[in-house]
């Protein structure tokens, strides 16, 4: 059956559902007089295997959009489809994983037990297909720290544990909400490079929210820019840079041209 | 480099001279003593000062016995003290367990039912604000003069700090942590056992340490109201008979009991709470 599915993919790619498809999404918070429109008529399609970064001024609803996809915020109007299903179904099937701004590790659990948490809770379909926690820790560069407690790690290391935990269910989509926003710049650069490597190794679709233009351009194949009050799509830009990227690419004229363009767009928001 | 360190360390330990090992063990035993040396010296100084004041001003023994008189009271009344310590320990321990158990269960209920919290939290505060010494005669009228009123008072005194802390502890899980559990489609029971309960443990132990000492106090106060046994009864009896050295010895025993219970809880805490509270990764 898997093969037949594969065949359809090859012959008619337009039949395969995209990773995420958002159509005419409205999100309103509160009710009556205090009603507040967080997102207004947002439509966007994220193809499978893509790495899309999301950027915008604060209050533009980029986190809200990500949390709607993750079934953490209810949709007021419009539809979201995650791999052709409702966000709820996708959540229950562990089709996506979420990485928060804080690492949100359980402080009383060792690094290894934190990574194993998704194996222990929820309606876990087919845990036999899950990744090996020890190998994931090696993938994020934390081999040998399995027994450490979160408070013994640095902020960057904690976030690596959170990424390993997110990858354990082999999610087809990784939703990341400013995961490196609280880290220092050197750690952040390093994790950016490693995220690109993980993306290539796993083939996971990644949606990455950030408030840093250089980070958005460095990571993204596409950059989705939202404008604020109310939150809406301002631009959806393909980043014209080679897919093999190292930090040095940020010094190229092309990179600077793209960031300058985005900065101008952001100022209009 | 780490490899070399790992392989060198065990050989070094195995090849250690027995004398060196003994010295290391002695050092490990003596280190805490050295740590507490200032406190030990200060206490010894206070006791010596007390002895000197009693000697210098010829204070009568019934008014304030000297430390030496208290020491001999220990020797002369060893059996009496021991026989009265056990019931108080039993009452305090049973009160501690039952009071804290009720508080923990109530806290769980409050966290899952805001209506219950709104309805019964004020009642808990009202009960808490009744002076425990005024409650004792009422309880004697209600449940008789046996062990029951003592356990209830020791329990009540343990109950309130644990209730307050446990409610706070169960609510201490961060919103991001709860979001994570939702993304993982965790059930409420899983969220309780995997997140809320472990997160509450530092809060719980802070309350248990208070409860450990105050439950001893509760049991003693309850014994003052017409009891013929226990440290509380012994305090009353020694006072009325002007047996001041025995009175002081009883007070020292009561304090020691409270301190021991405190340290028992602290040791359990050290085993259970190995992470740093307030640091949620």
Automatic annotation (TrEMBL), chain A:
<dbReference type="Pfam" id="PF00005">
    <property type="entry name" value="ABC_tran"/>
</dbReference>
<keyword id="KW-0067">ATP-binding</keyword>
<dbReference type="InterPro" id="IPR027417">
    <property type="entry name" value="P-loop_NTPase"/>
</dbReference>
<dbReference type="GO" id="GO:0016887">
    <property type="term" value="F:ATP hydrolysis activity"/>
</dbReference>
<dbReference type="InterPro" id="IPR050166">
    <property type="entry name" value="ABC_transporter_ATP-bind"/>
</dbReference>
<dbReference type="InterPro" id="IPR003593">
    <property type="entry name" value="AAA+_ATPase"/>
</dbReference>
<dbReference type="GO" id="GO:0005524">
    <property type="term" value="F:ATP binding"/>
</dbReference>
<keyword id="KW-0547">Nucleotide-binding</keyword>
<dbReference type="InterPro" id="IPR003439">
    <property type="entry name" value="ABC_transporter-like_ATP-bd"/>
</dbReference>
<dbReference type="InterPro" id="IPR017871">
    <property type="entry name" value="ABC_transporter-like_CS"/>
</dbReference>
<protein>
    <submittedName>
        <fullName>ABC transporter ATP-binding protein</fullName>
    </submittedName>
</protein>
<keyword id="KW-0813">Transport</keyword>
<comment type="similarity">
    <text>Belongs to the ABC transporter superfamily.</text>
</comment>
<feature type="domain" description="ABC transporter">
    <location>
        <begin position="20"/>
        <end position="255"/>
    </location>
</feature>
From TrEMBL, chain B:
<dbReference type="InterPro" id="IPR000515">
    <property type="entry name" value="MetI-like"/>
</dbReference>
<protein>
    <submittedName>
        <fullName>ABC transporter permease</fullName>
    </submittedName>
</protein>
<dbReference type="Pfam" id="PF00528">
    <property type="entry name" value="BPD_transp_1"/>
</dbReference>
<feature type="transmembrane region" description="Helical">
    <location>
        <begin position="92"/>
        <end position="112"/>
    </location>
</feature>
<feature type="transmembrane region" description="Helical">
    <location>
        <begin position="37"/>
        <end position="57"/>
    </location>
</feature>
<keyword id="KW-0472">Membrane</keyword>
<comment type="similarity">
    <text>Belongs to the binding-protein-dependent transport system permease family.</text>
</comment>
<feature type="transmembrane region" description="Helical">
    <location>
        <begin position="246"/>
        <end position="268"/>
    </location>
</feature>
<feature type="domain" description="ABC transmembrane type-1">
    <location>
        <begin position="81"/>
        <end position="269"/>
    </location>
</feature>
<keyword id="KW-1133">Transmembrane helix</keyword>
<feature type="transmembrane region" description="Helical">
    <location>
        <begin position="119"/>
        <end position="141"/>
    </location>
</feature>
<keyword id="KW-0813">Transport</keyword>
<dbReference type="InterPro" id="IPR035906">
    <property type="entry name" value="MetI-like_sf"/>
</dbReference>
<feature type="transmembrane region" description="Helical">
    <location>
        <begin position="203"/>
        <end position="226"/>
    </location>
</feature>
<feature type="transmembrane region" description="Helical">
    <location>
        <begin position="147"/>
        <end position="167"/>
    </location>
</feature>
<keyword id="KW-1003">Cell membrane</keyword>
<dbReference type="GO" id="GO:0055085">
    <property type="term" value="P:transmembrane transport"/>
</dbReference>
<keyword id="KW-0812">Transmembrane</keyword>
<dbReference type="GO" id="GO:0005886">
    <property type="term" value="C:plasma membrane"/>
</dbReference>
């Amino acid at each position: 059956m898997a093969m037949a599915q594969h065949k359809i993919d090859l012959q008619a790619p337009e039949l395969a559902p995209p990773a995420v498809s958002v159509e005419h999404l409205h999100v309103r918070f509160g009710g009556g007089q205090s009603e507040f429109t967080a997102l207004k008529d947002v439509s966007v399609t994220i193809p499978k295997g893509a790495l899309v970064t999301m950027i915008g001024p604060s209050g533009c609803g980029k986190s809200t959009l990500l949390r709607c996809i993750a079934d953490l915020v209810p949709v007021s109007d419009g539809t979201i489809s995650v791999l052709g299903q409702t966000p709820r179904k996708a959540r229950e099937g562990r089709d996506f994983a979420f990485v928060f701004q804080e690492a949100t590790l359980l402080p009383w659990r060792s690094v290894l037990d934190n990574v194993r948490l998704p194996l222990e809770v929820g309606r876990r379909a087919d845990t036999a297909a899950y990744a090996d926690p020890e190998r994931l820790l090696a993938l994020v560069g934390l081999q040998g720290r399995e027994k450490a407690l979160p408070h013994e790690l640095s902020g960057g290391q904690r976030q690596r544990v959170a990424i390993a935990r997110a990858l354990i269910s082999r999610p087809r989509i990784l939703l990341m909400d400013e995961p490196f926003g609280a880290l220092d710049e050197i750690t952040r650069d390093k994790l950016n490079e490693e995220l690109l490597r993980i993306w290539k190794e796993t083939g996971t679709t990644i949606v990455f929210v950030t408030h840093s233009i250089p980070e958005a351009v460095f990571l993204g194949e596409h950059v989705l820019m939202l404008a604020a009050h109310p939150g809406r799509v301002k631009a959806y830009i393909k980043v014209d840079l080679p897919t093999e990227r190292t930090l040095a690419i940020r010094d190229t004229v092309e990179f600077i041209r793209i960031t300058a363009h985005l900065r101008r767009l952001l100022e209009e928001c | 480099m780490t490899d070399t360190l790992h392989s060198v360390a065990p050989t070094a330990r195995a090849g250690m001279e027995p004398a060196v090992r003994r010295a290391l063990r002695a050092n490990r035993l003596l280190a805490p003593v050295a740590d507490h040396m200032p406190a030990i010296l200060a206490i010894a100084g206070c006791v010596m000062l007390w002895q000197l004041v009693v000697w210098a001003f010829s204070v009568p023994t019934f008014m304030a016995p000297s430390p030496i008189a208290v020491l001999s009271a220990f020797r002369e009344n060893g059996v009496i003290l021991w026989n009265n310590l056990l019931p108080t320990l039993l009452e305090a321990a049973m009160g501690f367990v039952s009071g804290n158990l009720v508080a923990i269960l109530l806290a769980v209920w409050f966290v899952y039912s805001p209506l219950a919290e709104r309805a019964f939290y004020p009642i808990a505060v009202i009960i808490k604000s009744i002076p425990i010494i005024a409650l004792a005669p009422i309880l004697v009228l209600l449940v008789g003069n046996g062990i029951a009123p003592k356990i209830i008072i020791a329990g009540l005194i343990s109950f309130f700090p644990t209730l307050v802390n446990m409610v706070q502890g169960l609510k201490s899980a961060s919103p991001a942590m709860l979001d994570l559990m939702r993304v993982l489609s965790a059930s409420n029971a899983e969220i309780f056992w995997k997140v809320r309960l472990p997160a509450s443990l530092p809060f719980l132990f802070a309350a248990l340490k208070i409860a450990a000492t105050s439950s001893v106090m509760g049991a003693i106060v309850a014994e003052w109201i017409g009891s013929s046994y226990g440290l509380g009864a012994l305090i009353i009896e020694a006072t009325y008979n002007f047996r001041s050295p025995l009175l002081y010895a009883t007070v020292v025993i009561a304090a020691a009991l409270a301190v021991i219970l405190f340290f028992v809880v602290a040791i359990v805490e050290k085993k259970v709470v190995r992470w740093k509270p307030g640091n949620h990764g």
